Structure formats: structure tokens, C-alpha cells
Predict the 3D structure of the following.
Amino acid sequence: MSEPVVSQGPIPPVVKRLWLPLPPGVAFRVFTDETARWWPLLTHAVFGEEAQACLMDPYEGGRFYEVHVDGQQQSEWGCV
């Protein structure tokens, strides 16, 4: 097994731009309220098979996080 990679400083933000045939408000709602429709939780989860959901708070500064099947544990991935 390889050693984990440890960051030596701030990690630059991930920026992705897409042009969608939707009004901005609708696109934002789908992106934040329906995260489970587009996030590949089965293959990209901190809790692995014990991940229940990934959620995003729909406001600036909101959390992007994962919830464990026990409903209590959470892993914050980033922020809006």
C-alpha cells in the first residue's frame, strides 16, 4: 500500500465551468439540492461503503459534505 499524500500548503480551489440550457437559479438548485443525482458516491466517498449521502448547503459559504450510515458522522469536503 502506498503512503498517503500530505499537502504542504493550501490546496487551490477546483474551478469548473459548464454552460447549461437552464436559468441560473434552476441550475444552482439542481447542483445543490440534487447532489446525489450527479456525485458518484459509490466510488468517491470518504466513508466508502458506509457512506449514506453527500449533501451541499445551497448558499455561499455552505458545506459540501458526506454523511455516514449512522447519520451522525460527517466528512466535510469543501464549501460553496
Summary: The radius of gyration is 15 Å. The helical segments are 24-33, 35-38.
